[in-house]
């Protein structure tokens, strides 16, 4: 049976990027370049690690945010790490770097040398959405306010 070529679902990708923009804006608030926010991810009685948001760069129409997680398995595995561009004029956030790999296409032939899925870009942005939604629903800030 012949496999049909994957067609990029722009509507889903744009919807995911728009939702991620809103999630990130809620999490970073009024942070500025060089600032970091740490969010503890907890279950009922279990600590699953910390979600970190670091504002790498800020410009009038864009912000670059590093999103990464640390946790109990850090000595064995490196946690997920993403760089996300927020486009304020379009109100969208897009994953542009994942695990130090950059520039994802909207569609890949499969199989391919890098073993990307045909819809790799959409999957990365969905993963970011699930990750941020979990942080919003179950996270607790571990930022310590500065004393006057």
UniProtKB/TrEMBL annotation:
Domain of life the protein comes from: Bacteria
User: What Pfam families is this protein classified in?
Assistant: DUF1249
Which protein, by its recorded name, is this? DUF1249 domain-containing protein
Q: What is the lineage of its organism?
A: Bacteria, Pseudomonadati, Pseudomonadota, Gammaproteobacteria, Oceanospirillales
Source organism per entry reads Vreelandella boliviensis LC1
Identify the InterPro entries for this entry: DUF1249
């Amino acid at each position: 049976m012949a496999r049909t070529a994957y067609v990029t679902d722009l509507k889903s990708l744009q919807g995911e990027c728009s939702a991620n923009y809103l999630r990130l804006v809620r999490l970073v608030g009024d942070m500025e370049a060089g600032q970091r926010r740490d969010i503890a991810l907890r279950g009922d009685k279990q600590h699953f690690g910390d979600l970190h948001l670091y504002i790498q760069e800020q410009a009038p129409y864009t912000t670059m945010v590093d999103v990464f997680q640390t946790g109990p398995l850090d000595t064995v595995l490196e946690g997920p790490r993403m760089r996300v561009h927020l486009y304020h004029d379009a109100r969208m956030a897009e994953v542009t770097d994942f695990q130090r790999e950059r520039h994802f296409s909207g569609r890949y032939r499969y199989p391919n040398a890098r073993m990307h899925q045909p819809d790799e870009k959409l999957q990365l942005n969905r993963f970011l959405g699930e990750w941020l939604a979990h942080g919003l629903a179950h996270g607790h800030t571990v930022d310590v306010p500065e004393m006057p």
